């Protein structure tokens, strides 16, 4: 083996006490100690951290066994992310660490290791305030590897692959990052292309290349071989995609020569009950659900994501807007900006620039002093440095809709920087022309104007900066502002602005899926203004966006139900309280407001076989059909028609009393991979098999076979039930559990129980 990469995910121990105390407990990586911390409604920064008492210092240790220490080899420890402010020792020798919790870091431990047992210790210091504006978690929450390399080896962060399409062919240039002789082999299926060089640059011609796109995410395997004295000293493998992206003023973004709109979601890195300790397969399941409704892009907000997440986006076909940090000299990053910005920016670009999924870099989000001279200077500095690392993509910055006049506030003394940025004060700029002038100054520096919640000003922005395209890096899901008012509760869905203007290349909703932290107040433990609940259940508004984004015929029906609990959503990020069920025992023929989402030409609505006429979706400003139906128990059915032919349908049935539980799947096949996670959902159903939306029974899970139950989640961010149990109450008729595989092959039976109901089971075949 020329290059050995060994995962170090098992065999770790953890404590929040002094490391000298013998009270370590075994843990698996990834690990987030905060997700199981007690809930404290009075804790400092409770709202942004989901009221989970994550403060403190944690210690990890692991014994690394080396059968031998090879001569002429280098040993490295690679952490893809530790939150936060980490220090690492090997056999008592300090080998380094990293301050910023989202950056990968690689430590040379050659001089510290020896044959036999080696003690790795990691200190994680989460005592600095303020923390992130969202739930940040705490611990070694990403992949850890041991790299065993020959002294002369390739450095992945120095390798850059740049492709260019010329007519029917493509040219791939590989900058190897070393002066030695390197050969390259590119494959796609049975096709193979080769090249070599001893000057650090390899050129390979690819006839009739298969281009990467969200619809067809073709990838090429690249193998680079480093030769030293006619011997192979290293082999490094990566995947690349060949594609072109061109921003054409006034016309839009062209991907592989075709105009493409960004149909995107912003996402944070937690996954509900798992906290930030999220395995790739959990993100795969989320991304597949995103893709099913027509989503083609994600914005990883506002941090460097796990490297495996970008691998998934390459593979599945999701465009990515990536940015390294949130604020600059304010907020949680202020303690690092002056000394770490360059290091963290370089970490992002060097690690991720070979991913075809990344279509744009961001260098910040909603920063302080927006549009002022001090801010513009930093913006230019960050962009200029990024371009020295990668000049193949547009560079942008995501603007807050608030602009303020210059003042003398000491930002280091501002505890809640977001409130300072968002809250209107006597320095707020209300004049539209002055606000747009500030935006124009930013537009002079960035390649694409990235706007958070500014659809109402798009025409004015385009007028002063017609040579730049606009991207909605954050948009509301339902409501839209007014030119004279930042927030306005109209039903003008922001996506309509993307469709209306060619110079707007897309929109990215805040957010795709609910996340922990950024609570609007107890008892909410997180942000619920999204299109999915934390256990991957779809919310009604997601179907409206499916009608905008998907070409597959669809129709969906939901009603306004204000008997449902308040989930604590921030006002303008909220949406009407729609729910898809037909159970209103408290009503007798009362008329109920409804919505129908469809991408079909015509829609037919029936209640108990009686048809009620509705207009075409195209006759509504946001293509969402609205109206009223009297509540009569029975069946509601909507059908979508194209060209006079029925193309799709959706049915709601009044449910009877809950009789039994039912898993979404009867049999599941999973790979025998140690640490593999899978989310499984059980529902309440009546005698006829109709889902019972209002059921809230307590469900207990039991697993038999080579797996364990690690979490439960029902999507209710207002609940205080713990995630690390084998039971939880249903929310809106369902509850989920996450199991962790041991790596052994075999048969797993997961059973769900509830008092007074027939149990349910799902069989998992691990092969």
Entry summary:
The chain has 767 residues and is mainly beta. It has 9 helices and 49 strands.
Considering DSSP H and I runs of 4 or more, what fraction of the residues is helical?
10-25%
Overall mean pLDDT score?
A: 95
The total count of helices amounts to 9
Strand tally: 49
Label the overall shape: globular
- Main sheet characteristics: 8 strands, parallel, barrel
Ends: how far apart?
Answer: 27 Å
**How do the strands of the widest beta sheet line up side by side?**
23-24-25-26-27-28-29-30
Radius of gyration: 27 Å
Strand content bin: 35-45%
The low-confidence runs, each spanning 5 or more residues with pLDDT under 50, are none
Structural class by SSE content: mainly beta
């Amino acid at each position: 083996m020329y290059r050995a990469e060994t995962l170090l995910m098992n065999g770790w121990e953890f404590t929040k006490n002094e490391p000298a105390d013998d009270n370590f407990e075994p843990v698996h990586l990834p690990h987030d100690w905060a997700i199981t911390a007690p809930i404290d409604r009075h804790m400092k920064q409770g709202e942004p951290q989901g009221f989970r008492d994550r403060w403190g210092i944690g210690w990890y240790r692991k014994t690394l066994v080396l059968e031998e220490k090879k001569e002429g080899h280098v040993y490295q420890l690679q952490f893809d992310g530790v939150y936060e402010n980490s220090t690492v020792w090997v056999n008592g020798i300090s080998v380094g660490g990293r301050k910023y919790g989202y950056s990968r870091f690689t430590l040379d431990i050659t001089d510290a290791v020896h044959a036999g047992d080696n003690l790795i210790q990691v200190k994680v210091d989460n005592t600095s305030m303020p923390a992130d504006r969202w739930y940040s978690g705490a611990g070694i929450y990403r992949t850890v590897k041991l790299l065993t390399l020959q002294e002369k080896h390739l450095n992945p962060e120095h390798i850059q692959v740049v492709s260019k399409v010329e007519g029917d062919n493509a040219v791939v240039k590989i900058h190897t990052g070393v002066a030695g002789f390197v050969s390259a082999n590119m494959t796609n299926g049975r096709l193979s292309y080769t090249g070599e060089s001893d000057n650090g640059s390899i050129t390979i011609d690819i006839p009739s290349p298969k281009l990467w796109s969200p619809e067809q995410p073709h990838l090429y395997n690249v193998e680079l071989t480093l030769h030293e004295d006619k011997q192979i000293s290293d082999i490094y493998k990566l995947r690349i995609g060949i594609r072109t992206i061109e921003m054409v003023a006034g016309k839009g973004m062209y991907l592989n020569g075709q105009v493409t709109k960004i149909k995107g979601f912003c996402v944070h890195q937690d996954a509900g009950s798992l906290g930030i300790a999220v395995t790739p397969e959990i993100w795969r399941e989320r991304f597949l659900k995103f893709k099913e409704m027509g989503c083609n892009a994600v914005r990883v907000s506002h941090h460097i994501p796990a490297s495996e997440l970008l691998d998934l986006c390459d593979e599945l076909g999701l465009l990515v807007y990536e940015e390294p940090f949130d604020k600059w000299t304010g907020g949680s990053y202020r303690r690092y900006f002056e000394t770490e910005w360059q290091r963290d920016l370089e970490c992002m670009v060097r690690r991720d620039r070979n991913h075809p999924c990344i279509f744009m870099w961001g260098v910040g989000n909603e920063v302080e002093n927006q549009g002022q001279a001090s801010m513009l200077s930093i913006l230019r500095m960050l962009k200029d440095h990024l371009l020295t690392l990668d000049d193949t993509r547009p560079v942008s910055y995501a603007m807050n809709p608030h602009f303020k006049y210059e003042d003398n506030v000491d930002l280091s003394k501002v505890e809640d920087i977001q409130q300072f940025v968002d809250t209107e004060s006597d320095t707020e700029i209300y004049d539209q022309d002055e606000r747009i002038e500030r935006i124009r100054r930013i537009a002079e520096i960035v390649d694409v104007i990235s706007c958070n919640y500014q659809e109402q000003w798009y025409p004015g922005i385009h007028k002063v900066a017609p040579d730049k395209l606009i991207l909605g890096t954050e948009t509301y899901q339902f409501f839209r502002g007014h030119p004279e008012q930042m927030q306005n509760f109209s039903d003008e869905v922001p996506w309509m602005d993307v469709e209306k203007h060619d110079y707007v290349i897309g929109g990215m909703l805040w957010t795709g899926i609910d996340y922990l932290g950024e609570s609007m107040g107890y008892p909410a433990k997180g942000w619920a203004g999204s299109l999915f609940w934390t256990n991957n259940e779809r919310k009604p508004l997601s179907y409206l966006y499916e009608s905008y984004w998907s070409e597959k015929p669809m129709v969906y029906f939901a009603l306004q139900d204000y008997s449902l609990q308040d989930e604590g959503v921030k006002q303008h990020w909220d949406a009407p309280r729609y729910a898809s069920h037909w159970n209103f025992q408290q009503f007798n023929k009362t008329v109920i407001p409804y919505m129908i989402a469809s991408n079909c030409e015509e829609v037919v609505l029936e209640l108990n076989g009686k048809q009620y006429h509705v207009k075409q979706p195209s006759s509504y400003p946001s293509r969402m059909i609205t109206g009223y139906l009297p509540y009569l128990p029975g069946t509601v059915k909507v059908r979508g028609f194209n060209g006079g032919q029925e193309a799709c349908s959706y049915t709601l049935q009044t449910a009877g009393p809950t009789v039994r539980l039912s898993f979404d799947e009867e049999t599941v096949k999973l790979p025998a991979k140690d640490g593999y996670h899978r989310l499984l959902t059980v529902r309440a159903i009546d005698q006829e098999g109709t889902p019972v939306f209002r059921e809230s029974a307590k469900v207990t899970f039991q697993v038999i076979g080579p797996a364990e139950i690690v979490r439960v989640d029902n999507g209710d961010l207002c609940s205080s039930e713990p995630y690390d149990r084998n039971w939880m109450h249903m929310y809106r008729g369902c509850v989920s559990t996450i199991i962790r595989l041991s790596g052994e092959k075999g048969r797993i039976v997961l059973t769900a129980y509830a008092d007074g109901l027939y149990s349910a089971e799902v069989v998992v075949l691990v092969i």
